[in-house]
Structures are given as C-alpha cells and as structure tokens.
Amino acid sequence: MALHQLPELPYAYGALEPYYDEQTVRLHHDVHHKAYVDGLNNAEAKLAEAREKGDFALIKHWERELAFHGSGHILHTLFWQNMSPDGGGPPVGKVAKEIDRCFGSFESFKKQFSAAAVAVEGSGWAVLCYNPGFQKLEILTAEKHQNLTQWGVVPLLTVDVWEHAYYLKYQNRRAAYVENWWNLVNWEDVNARLDTIGV
Q1: In the Cβ-directed half-sphere of 146, how many Cα atoms lie within 13 Å?
Q2: Are 37 and 9 in contact (CB under 8 A)?
Q3: Which of 8, 11, 12, 128 stands 20 to 30 A from 26 (CA)?
Q4: Distance of CA 130 to the CA centre of its chain
Q5: What local confidence, expressed as pLDDT, does residue 123 receive?
Q6: Positive or negative, the Cα torsion across 171, 173, 175, 181?
C-alpha cells in the first residue's frame, strides 16, 4: 500500500507575510498537517490489517480515524495551494463568472464566505465547493472537518479556522485572520480546479 506523503509548500515559509506569519506556517504545515498524514497512513494500515485477519472489532474506530485524518490531509493540501504570495484581489476568469452567477457579486460572496468562516463552532473550515448535481457553487462549513458536507461536491477554495491555523498571530481574533486571508487567495488555483472538473 502506497503511503501518503506530506506535500511540499508551493512557496517559502515566510512568503505569506505579513498576512500569514512564518512561525504559524511552519508549525501548521510541518507539525499539524504532518500529523494528519501520519494518522491517515496509520488508519489505512490498521484497516488493511483488519481485512487480513478478518477481525473487524475496531472497525468503527478506524473508519472514524480514516475520515478524520483523510479529510484533514485533503483540506490542508487544498488550503496551502489556495494561497499565494501574489494572491488576493477580486477573482478573474471562470470563477469570477460562476461567483456572479451563484452569489450575485463577489462582494456578496465574500461577505457570506467570511461570515460562514467566522461562525464555525469550535474547529473547522469554510469551503467553496462546486456541486455537480446542482450545477452551482456552494459555501459549506465543515466542523471537525469530516462533518456537515454534501456528497459529491468538489472543494475549490478553503480557509482553515481551527485555532492552530491562526492563534500565534491573531489569538482569538478569527475575523481579523479571515479578513487578512483574502489577501492571499490564489484565484488561478481555483480556476484550475474548475477546469479540471469541466465547469
């Protein structure tokens, strides 16, 4: 079974300053994200072992671990790619048209997305997704990050609002963190994701 790997950052640790500080990026990527990768690999190994032995007594535990760590790895990978030192500003291209179509305007979208991110109870994410069944963009929140989703959606843009993502610089000021995060949004990455799914 191939092991999942912690992806390299697409920029230097300090490249997102002043909006996202180097110390948090290092800790968030090298420690927190790595823990999800390690947990995912462990869960997959334990499930393979259970299949081999025919012993599924702990199936609920290992399936939860698979969902938790797998979701954490997927969303963190997306999070790093969704930011750029050259990011920010209004969207361009296909995603700009889709945002206007689905939310009325970029300003309406930005307000709704920011409000969703700030309102997450405890730990979680705000995620812009494309729902192929509905043929539209949706803003969803994921508390505990494996919950509160819609089946079949494709995540395009996400902001991590677990405290480990911002506490060193912003303490409990999540709204300030989210507002500064908009300066880093990599719209080219979001457009590339839309292209991949044929929107």
Answers
A1: 12
A2: no
A3: 128
A4: 14
A5: 84
A6: negative
Rounded to whole angstroms, the Cα distance separating 135 from 93 reads 18
Please report which confidence band the pLDDT of residue 188 belongs to, taking 50, 70 and 90 as the band edges.
Answer: very high
Are 44 and 108 in a shared domain? Answer: no
Could you tell me the two tokens for 185? 């949004």
What DSSP character marks residue 126? E
Token pair for 95:
């995603």
- 148 pLDDT exceeds 60? no
Residues 154 and 190 reside in one and the same domain: yes
Rg (CA), the chain: 17
> For position 56, which CATH number holds?
1.10.287.990
Beta bridge partners of 128: 139, 157
Beta bridge partners of 124: 143
For the segment 2-56, what is each residue's pLDDT rounded down to a tens digit? 799 999 999 999 999 999 999 999 999 999 999 999 999 999 999 999 999 999 9
Domain that holds residue 126: 93-196
Residues 6+ apart with CB under 8 A from 52: none
Computed over every residue of the chain, the mean pLDDT equals 94
Going by the DSSP 8-state scheme, the letter that residue 2 receives in this structure is: P
Statement: residue 150 has pLDDT above 80:
no
